[in-house]
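in:
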């Protein structure tokens, strides 16, 4: 593994697997799939008036997607769809070298700065956020 891509901090996030496991009665569920590598992330959201109160995920994916899902599992409570969309834009900008890491409480995504040079891996980092947005879309019927 490349040390710049798979930093110890990132591996720790993946191993922590915050919020791993499905919710028994989610308000919304979304799945994102990367056909290039076969990664699949399913995110369950517990919502109260559009605000995430609980989150669970089933992540069958590479270390990058696992770490990203774990960070979301730890930090996304209290967010709404607009915050998730903003986070996706900020992570994409960071990966495209157009901005630094997202602000608190999402600053842990700085661990993915090593993925900037690997454009094919950007989708892996974004996959869990895309699954969250798919859950919101399913709820609203989009």
């Amino acid at each position: 593994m490349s040390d710049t891509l798979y930093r110890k901090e990132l591996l720790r996030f993946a191993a922590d697997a915050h919020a791993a496991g499905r919710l028994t009665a989610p308000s919304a569920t979304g799945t994102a799939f990367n056909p290039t590598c076969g990664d699949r992330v399913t995110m369950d959201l517990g919502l109260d008036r559009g605000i995430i109160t609980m989150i669970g995920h089933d992540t069958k994916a590479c270390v990058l997607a696992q770490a990203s899902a774990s960070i979301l599992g730890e930090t996304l409570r209290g967010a709404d769809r607009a915050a998730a969309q903003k986070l996706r834009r900020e992570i994409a900008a960071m990966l495209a070298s157009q901005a630094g890491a997202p602000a608190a409480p999402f600053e842990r995504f700085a661990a993915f700065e090593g993925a900037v040079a690997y454009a094919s891996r950007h989708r892996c980092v974004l996959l869990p956020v895309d699954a969250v947005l798919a859950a919101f879309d399913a709820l609203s019927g989009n």
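note: The first strand starts at residue 28 and ends at 34.
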